[in-house]
Amino acid sequence: MTKREALLRQLSTHQFAALDLQLFLDTHPKDAGIIEKMNICKQKAAALKKEYEAQYGPLQKSETDGNMWNWINGPWPWESEEND
Questions:
Q1: HEC per residue, 37-67
Q2: pLDDT tens-place string over residues 15-33
Q3: Alpha carbon distance 78, 69 (integer Å)
Q4: pTM, full prediction
Q5: What is the C-alpha to C-alpha distance for residues 57 and 72, in angstroms, rounded to an integer?
Q6: Dihedral pair phi/psi, residue 52, rounded to 5°
Q7: Distance between CA atoms of 30 and 51, rounded to whole angstroms?
Q8: Between the CA of residue 72 and those of 10, 41, 57, 60, 75, what are the distances in Å?
């Protein structure tokens, strides 16, 4: 697994955990412990996303720097760093 894939997997893991905890809060809205865990997961996901985008470019087209075609400059998901 490349460093890029590992970073993306970590990001996905924290995003999934935050969403799962948020869904749990739909039925347990006053659970302070879960709220804290969800916020920690969101913070970790935001930091990982920032790190990923700094190294590999935006994850979504809407997050480009104003040049709407800039997002295509990075490798596509099926392109491996091993092919470089």
A1: HHHHHHHHHHHHHHHHHHHHCCCCHHHCCCC
A2: 999 999 999 999 999 999 9
A3: 19
A4: 0.74
A5: 9
A6: -60, -50
A7: 32
A8: 23, 29, 9, 10, 8
Q: Which amino acid is at 48?
A: L
- What span, in angstroms and rounded, lies between the C-alpha atoms of 21 and 36? 10
pLDDT digits (tens, 9 = 90+) for 21-77: 999 999 999 999 999 999 999 999 999 999 998 988 888 766 656 666 666 666 766
d(CA 67, CA 26): 38
- What does the domain layout of the chain look like in residue ranges? 1-56
Closest CA to 48 of 11, 17, 9: 11
- Structure tokens given for 48: 């990982």
Counting every residue written for the chain, the total comes to: 84
